[in-house]
Amino acid sequence: MSSTGRRRVVITGMGAITPIGSDWETARAALLGRASGIRRHEDWDSIEGLLTRLGAPAVLDEEAGMRIETLAPSIGRVSALAVLATERALADAGLRDKPEIIRRAGVAIGSTSGSPPALQTLATQVSIAASIESLSPAVFRRAMPHAAAAHVAATFGCQGRMLPTCSACTSGSQGIGFAFEAVRYGAQEVMLAGGAEELHILAATVFDIMYATSTRNENPESTPRPFDTARDGLVVGEGAATAVIESEDHALARGATIIAEIVGWGTNCDGAHIVSPSAEKMRDVMQLALDNAELSAPEIGFVNAHGTATEVGDIAESEATAAVFGGSTPVTAPKSYLGHTLGASGAIESWLTISMLREGWIAPTLNLCDPDPRCAPLDHVLEVRATDAAYAINNNFAFGGVNTSLVLGRYRS
After folding, report:
1. Catalytic option among 146, 158, 166, 169
2. Strand pairing of 39-40 and 54-56?
């Protein structure tokens, strides 16, 4: 229990499926080896007017591939990714054989939408075919916006509160943040929290029509380029990550291994333009998170940036980050490896942040060769850097003006 009477909140297990691996060992090797997860998608050539051909598909080991293949036809790929990440998180937390704990757990898992192919089927049948005779009720179960959270709850029998976040690129980080609050203030002892996204042409199209996608189609590994003068946009990706979040007392009572602590968080909204970010509100949300964590900016060992590699986003984010942390706190931008995994990004990037904190190093930002002078000066990590940081902050910002910051820490009893 903290001095303020709020409960300490810890993470006892994590599972992730990402474009650079579906286990930490594979992902670590990619980060240390500066290996990109970006690929060219030849099957997108048939879409007239589409500029980008780039995406970041999840890298699945044999077990994961078989599990997704089994689950996706009935529940949709986005939900299948969420279920698989949760299975691995529960195993990591030592909870797979503890149904009595899982049954009381809550679920806070987000995505930008349900499964896009199911949405496409609904739209095609109703609007183009003008018939619903061939539609199965199962298509709605795949398409509903809270599909990932609902299917995780149903798969594992969770009966606690459900908080299905659907806030674009902050869905995963809001899931973790709202779960943190539920545990911190005693509404739940255990929450399964995170985000998921599946790669689909519809996601690429959304950003393409705003001229926000990278078109380095012949050289996929050279993009995205967060904060770089030569950046030309983002790359959409897919994946999922789930954290098992518990009160410290509950975790210790069951003899769990604690891998990290959630120290504080903040979320706000710009209340202005839908797609033009506000550096002021980005700055404010970082300060909200620091205040919530009862920490000062110098106590943060590194910043995990949102880093989309879009011009307006990078400039605003750099200004906000510099306003809070100055120019001496190390900054890393993992989307340079992962692409933008949208609703999963906050959860996957929290997994990376925690893993680096535990091992004492920071991954460099890939493809950052010439920092844009229009961005505020930051201490960009350009080579693997050792750190003894106790705390890091993970930032995510979304269309609609949604902002989140999570303060994560190495656990100390």
Report:
1. 169
2. antiparallel
